[in-house]
TrEMBL record:
Superkingdom, natural source: Bacteria
Binding, Zn(2+): 250, 255, 257, 263
Span of domain EngC GTPase: 75-224
The protein's name: Small ribosomal subunit biogenesis GTPase RsgA
Coiled-coil region: none
NCBIfam families registered for this protein in UniProt: ribosome small subunit-dependent GTPase A (TIGR00157)
Amino acid sequence: MKGRVISAHGRHYIVELENGQTRQCYTRGKKTGICVGDFVRIQPQAEDEGSIEETLTRKNLLYRSDEMRSKQFAANVDQLLIVVATEPFFSEDLTGRALTGAWSADISPIILLNKCDLTSGMARAQESLEIYRELGVPIISSSIHEPEQLKQDLLPLLKDKTSLLLGQSGMGKSSILNVLIPHARAHTQEHSVALGTGKHTTTSTRLYHLPNNTGCLIDSPGFQAFGLYHLTQTDVANGFPEFKTHIESCRFYNCTHLHEPGCGVLAALKQGVISNKRHELYERILLENQSATRY
């Protein structure tokens, strides 16, 4: 039987079959590395159980990081919906890394600016996001206090696609999920002003169907680090689409775009065509990955 993994807990999985039924599944032996969004073949077992025999070829794979360890958590994603908020202020570094992860895996990103009813942080948030707007990333303003408007803006973009809902804790991601998919009943909690951050309200990754089965939405735990350690230097560069045309001008085929003479990217940086902030992020990611590989 063929199906799709809609939930994963350790080495136990819930697989939704093509007929809509679900089975509790496990893997044989030491087989691991299966994640939400994977298409699999299973062997039915007693009752509503099954064993996963094969993972079908993936279109892409996303990772999340914990210190120096990366763990895959979602596969076969069409677009990444990154939730940020006017308050508490979001991490520009994490937002940039999530975009790099999306672009390197050929996933279309969308930024959702939430809590737009809290106008005090609006100007600062808009200013920080302008750099991504210039790169062509759609930026949608939202408030869960206007649920019908939120659905009207988002559901057409999510139609017939598998989208991953991603955001730092405290951005209101679970509340957005509850608006889009009421039966998800995701846990929500008030943001802790004292701590300046939200606690993780989602503990595992889960795939939901949008109303009338018009698409899939994968919800994931609030993230504090996006997994990029598995990327090669070329992959990282692919995660910065504004580099692409300038890379063609590089003198050396293995140019790292950090210090080489005749580098098209550095020339564009000097001319102000590429932003300093973006190139600094590229350099941080690349040097971190090189350090992780070395040790």
